[in-house]
Input
Amino acid sequence: MKCKICGRPAVIKLPAHNIALCEKCFEEFVLRRVKNAIKTYKMFTKDDKVAVAVSGGKDSLALWDILTRLGYETGGIHIHLGIGKYSDESLQKAENFAKKINSELTVIYVRDFFGTGIPEIAKITKRKTCSVCGTIKRYLMNRFAYEKGYTVLATGHNLDDEASTLLGNLLYWKDLYLARKGPVLPSTHPKLIRKVKPLVFLTEREIAAYTILRGIDYIYEECPHAAGATSIFHKHVLNEIENYSPGTKLHFLKGFYERKNIFARLYPEETKMQHECKECGYPSSGEICGFCKLRRRVKEKLENGRETTTA
Ligand SMILES: [Zn+2]
Ligand SMILES: [Zn+2]
Output
């Protein structure tokens, strides 16, 4: 198997693009795909200061590596979730990588805000772990990207992530999610940072190959709370379709992005945050934002718990 571009021995076959590539040409292919996504969806420019949401996993570290190589001004933000050993190891991987590329990493601890980690917060509020975690991560990422002077927040969602969520949302006709979904979530308030997904044109397999070739050390373990049985199944189904007819996944997602206004039109006012939270000053749909409400509940509960144990 020879590289289609330079004729050297190929290291990877890309059926969706009908090519095989050598190490060097594959790396260039990856950089080009990301550059393309950034340009196509007008994600950001060289004037922006890009915050990368870094979990310590392969997608976020690959994203940070790629954006740095493309010459963008970047920095990482890592949220320590307080999920035992998993969180400590994730932080370690993020810190090591920041050192390796000589870039700034901002680390935020959930326990500094709640006095405890995600599993306990979910238990106290009787909410699903992944839903509570999502609310907290979204809030902290936005707030600290803003406070640190970043102009855009980039996350490591890849083609498999986006195509499988899209499939799930279509199967159950979740119009509101479909209306909001896209490679760019524009800012609708001065304190709400634009969110972008520069890896949407790359599959999980392509990103994994890239991290191996680049010697990027990431956390292999999935979050122990990762429920997502359904989303894993949807990824599997899409891979079956992809094997049968290569290129379908990309076609499916790109086609949706071209038509997404059909759904966005259904909820013209939905994305507007009218108020500012009375407690933290960040955009909110009500008087107190979801994050601060959550924080109050957890604090009350923890303080009551302490009183009863000391009495
Ligand atoms: Zn080549
Ligand atoms: Zn608030």
